Amino acid sequence: MPLFASLYNFAFWLAQDRAAAEDLVQETYMKALNGFSSFQQGTNFRAWMYRILRNTFLTTQTGLKTFVSLDGDGEEPPEAGIEPETRVTPESLLLARTEQQAIQNALERLPVNYREIVLLCDLEEMSYREIAQTLDMPVGTVMSRLSRARRAMRALLTAKEEGAAQ
Amino acid sequence: MSCERWSEWLDLYVDESCTPEEIAGVEDHLRTCNACAAEALGRLQMKRATRAAAAARYAPTPDFKLSPEFFTQMGRSAPKQRLPFWRVRGVQGLAAGALAFVLILVVSVSAWTRQAAREQAVAELLDLHVATLASTNPVDVVSTDRHTVKPWFQGKLPFAFNLPDLQNSAFKLLGGKLMYFNHSPGAQLLFEIRKHQLSVFVLQSQRGEGASTMRQKGFSVETWSEAGLRYTVIGDTGPADVHDLAELLRAAGRQ
Predict the structure, then answer these.
(1) So where are chain B's domains?
(2) Could you report the per-residue pLDDT of B16-71, keeping only the tens digit for each?
(3) Residues of B numbered 144-183 whose beta carbons fall under 8 angstroms of chain A's beta carbons: which are they?
(4) Among A128, A136, B183, B228, which one has the highest count of C-beta atoms within 10 angstroms of its own C-beta?
(5) How far lies A80's CA from each of A93, A115, B42, B246, in Å?
(6) Interchain contact, A91 vs B8, CB within 8 Å
(7) Residues of B with CB below 8 A from A18's CB?
(8) Is the Cβ of A90 closer than 8 Å to some Cβ of chain B?
(9) What is the pLDDT of residues B74-120, one digit of tens each?
(10) Total structural domains in chain A?
(11) With the CA atoms of B69, A58, A15 and B59 taken in that order, what torsion angle do they form, in degrees rounded to the nearest 10?
């Protein structure tokens, strides 16, 4: 089944729950099948499928809760106040010691609207245009939100490293 | 344009979302600005690390399958349970063919996976080499004397290695530092030849790693295992220089 494993992975990252991820994938394929006539041939099938999954997630209890107060693109990320003062950057720390677990934890702690955009860009390697189609937003918003999401992730990683050092 | 403004371009650059003209502009700046080059490299590392951490983090369980209703709507029935093998005609011929196919597939996939893993490892070491050259403090122990550099690693690494005597060679030792790769500590040594700097990475060897030479992004790389250690030499000089340094290290390792 096309995209089955990657859609499941993405669903689990969003919902953080196995049963919810399975329901999301199930529902996504059903909706895709029922609405296949609305898919425009020649457009991006992958972005279309991810968009269905993401919109389905938005309608769930968890999705509603997580997105309801996070969608403002003018606001600063919640982690903005914990940027490090030292010259040590998370990247340099990662160069010294790659901590896969730390990155997974940071991703899990990111607000969902930041987590999804980082995953679509870095994991699914979607172009900005594909992400814009998936998330139904202008390309400019994709760029600014991605930038803020990465800043928040760096802040989380730096906070963890500094916490571990103390 | 200030570095702050260039910083805004680095995400687009790392995400390969620039036009060729924009790429040229960013790369022109990165060649002249160590801080932005290090920042770009850091963001690239972060992107790769995120991909590695998030990929296949959650795999569907074997018993999770799309519902029969889905397949019914697709116009065909859900996959049925397989018949017992003794009820399938020509099962022996099919089994032999399938076995041969699977064997070929396993061998091919295994070879491909090993090659991909080796190239990925080299790519990451290459990034570390470039990051070291971009750094204002490339090494932690600065010395041309192997009897100073080698003891510096004592107590920092769970293994020991020999450094070659460079008295009669064109190479010069610049120093070394501790590095981590795949959660394991290792040594990174910096050498110089005709103003070109080469990195030598010494790590604990994993099983099944053979010797190889390759070119990646204009860099020459030679890598081999010996006595439980994995050596990788990386430099932007020709393959001959990299090989000469590798030979010196091999000879020192046998002492």
Answers:
(1) 3-54, 124-254
(2) 888 888 888 888 888 888 888 888 888 888 888 888 888 867 888 888 888 777 77
(3) 179-183
(4) A128
(5) 19, 16, 19, 47
(6) no
(7) 58, 61
(8) yes
(9) 765 455 555 555 555 555 566 666 666 666 666 656 666 666 777 77
(10) 1
(11) 50
- pLDDT, position A80: 42
CB distance A30–B43 less than 8 Å? no
Structural domain boundaries enclosing A114: 4-165
* Token code pair at residue A156: 């989380």
Q: For domain B124-254, which CATH number applies: 1.10.1660.10, 3.30.230.10, 3.30.200.100, 3.40.640.10?
A: 3.30.200.100
Q: What is the dihedral of CA A33, A39, A45, A49, to 10 degrees?
A: -50
Nearest-neighbour CA in chain A from B205: distance (Å): 18
In the structure, how many helices (H) and strands (E) does chain A have? 9, 0
| pLDDT 10s digits, A7-42 | 999 999 998 889 899 999 998 988 888 877 777 766
Q: Looking at residue A160, which CATH number applies to its domain? A: 1.20.140.160
Contacts of B42 in chain A (CB under 8 A): 89-92, 94-95
Q: Give the helix ranges, DSSP H, for chain B.
A: 3-14, 20-32, 34-54, 68-73, 91-134, 146-152, 239-254
Q: Let me know how long chain B is.
A: 255
Nearest CA in chain B to A4: B60
Interchain CB contact of A149 with B (< 8 Å): no
